[in-house]
Please model this.
Amino acid sequence: MRSHLRILCALLLAGLTSGSSETLPTIKTSLNAGDSLTVQVLTYDDVVTTCRLRSPSNALGEIQFKPMSDNNNERFQIEPDTERSKCRALITVKEGDDGLWTLTSGTADGKEKNQTYDLSVNPESDAVEHNEIDYLDNIFINTTIGSRHEITMPDFSFGGVKSCTIIMPSGRELDIHEVNATHMTGIARTESSSCSVSIGVQTESFVGDWMLTSVGYRYSAEKIERKLRFTIHVEEIVDSNAAEVSVTEGNNFYIAVKHLGEFEELSDTCRLLAPNKEKPSAKYTRLDHGCSYKVYNVRTHDSGYWEIRFGLTNKIEYRAITRLTVHAASTPTQINLIWTRDRPVHEALGPDHAVYCRLRSPEGYVAYDGFGRCWISLKRVIKHQHEGLWKMEVGMPGQVLTDSYIVNVTVKEADPKARITTRVIGESPDDIYMKNMYLSCYLESPDPISYCKFRDPSGRILIAAEAVGQSRYSWHGTGTNYTGSIHAHECGIRITNTTISDFGIWRCEIDTKGVTYYGFLTAKALWIRDPEIAASITTVPTLTADRSWMSSLSDESVTMTCSIQAPIRYCYFRARNGTLFNVAPSDTHGLAEYVGAGLDAGECGIKFPSLATSDSGYWSCHVGLLDLHKREQLARFEVLVNDTMVVSQHGPFRHDNRLLLEGRVNNARPLDYCRFVRIDGFGFTNENVPTNILDWSDLEKGLCGIIIRNPTNLEQHPWAIVARIRGQDTEITRLTDIAFPVPNPPGGSVQFRIPGAWIIVMTLGMCMILLASFVGPKRNREWTYARANALRNSFMAKKVEQNANDASKNTAVAA
Model:
């Protein structure tokens, strides 16, 4: 009863010492006189500024210790542990120290925590052996709920272990050897040593300061006690309002716990920590008395991981983390660009880390509006449209308002493209046989060279790598020389033991910073007298078609290419019907596009997205050379365009009154299905044909077909036949021709029809109208002209309608 009163009085006194204090559970312990007792209070993040020790019944008064003070004596050694945020005291007990000892820690903000120890001291006369206490280094375990940890006390190397006990954060003391009998869930004895325990962190009651104690004997006479203190600390990560935040220097930053509802009772414990795990040095405000903060005027050194921590002491601590990136403030400046007239432009504008951008041209239209950097893409630069001041609005990370930029574009005339100087020489000036031959290409350019290669007369590629040789070929040249702002590039190859295949027209390529330059070299074999061998060597640039014959389907792309062993000045293609298509690398349109390495490489090509069957026939490629004295050259192509699907409509026949519809896919490719659509919109597939219609489609052979018995006048109009080739997503649609029946004359006799009779009648009518226009009055002549024009327009409209229904005449060339 007396001990309980002492505890109650001590708790009341501890509560009166401070307006904001917390009393931890009492720890009971029993020692012999002369033993040492260590007491401590853990305060986690708050720095301890004072420690006060109160003896039982305040018999010794209150002993107060401050950092760096001299109040320690032989019996009481006490000091704040700022590194671990602890208040610790070491007491050498003696007889009469029984009772409740209280250790109080204080922080700078006036908070206090009390740890009480109920001490029972055995008289010195009752201690039959001397008790030596060995304190092992403390262990700090940062873990999570549900984890398990093993704590092991080292065995005595000179004697056995008498006892092993553990003290929980609540103050409860357990004998390890009897822990299973106490049914304490989460704590179990292990066999790692004579004093070893496994602790499963199941609830908050396992969080806090623990102590493992073992008692043994040296040579069965001297008693030794070991104490191992360890702290179990649990942290859990919870969601913040944003995992990452980017802010521009000088703006504000917000951080909050995303879902505080389940932790509402802990909101008073929230505190904000800067990346250095200390309170922010910048000005900040707590919002709505919850776990949310506003940090003002952030700077680049504030970048890092910010945290909101909350939770009770010796309980689970929660952390909400946000990574803050503070970008340096930038002052918008004018951007100056130089574009080349008639050349394409593809480039990004604005700061690299822009999150939004809008760009307006000098004429006021929006050239780009989207997230990220501005992107300008022009097929051709036009001076009066693109030169001038462009306005750009940029949204930066961590900003609400956009920054305004001025982009000043100057359009200049294109500079002539540098040309390669070539040279072919023998081993010596007198070596007409050229057993060893040197091919050299020379270029002056302000940009460094990327690679150099050659193409021999047969089309084989040889890479000219400096200081490298293989077989009969080796590097030849001076490499790259730099003079002022110009790089002089010379690369070449040396050929030993030349053969007939080495003679002819070569092409060299030098690439500098994405721009490729081409040159042509002619290696002549002057010593050859055999006319057949001499004729096999091409020394005069000749235009040739890469493929002289090609075929395709009406819905497939068609590519025609030709090349010559010389730079080209211009290039165009002529269609079967005389339509011309001028092509160039920078000039593309919807009907066709250029294909090839470039005109200066001697390559001319065109690619059509598709051609119609009416485009079949002979095409030609035409080129003009840089040498104005050379005539224009041409090469011919034969093009065959097959319709992807051909449809037909036959009948009705007199003998059985049937109408036959069919569509056949080119190359008999397998089909997924067939569809048939009547002129009024009624449609069906080959799987659900009406009862009066017979399906005879063969999908595996690419055939769509139906037979209509006793067709009506509506069913005798043109049908649409639709098929989808297996493996494709698009359908093919074709319209059948009109197939009205010709009625039989009465009596079954055959009546011959004259197809041109209506032409004769209309011609006589037109002549009479013209005659009346010349001899009649003016008003009649005007009326005559109007009627003649109306009649002519009606024929033209009828002809246009017929052409529109003819799928074979819908062609890119006709456009």
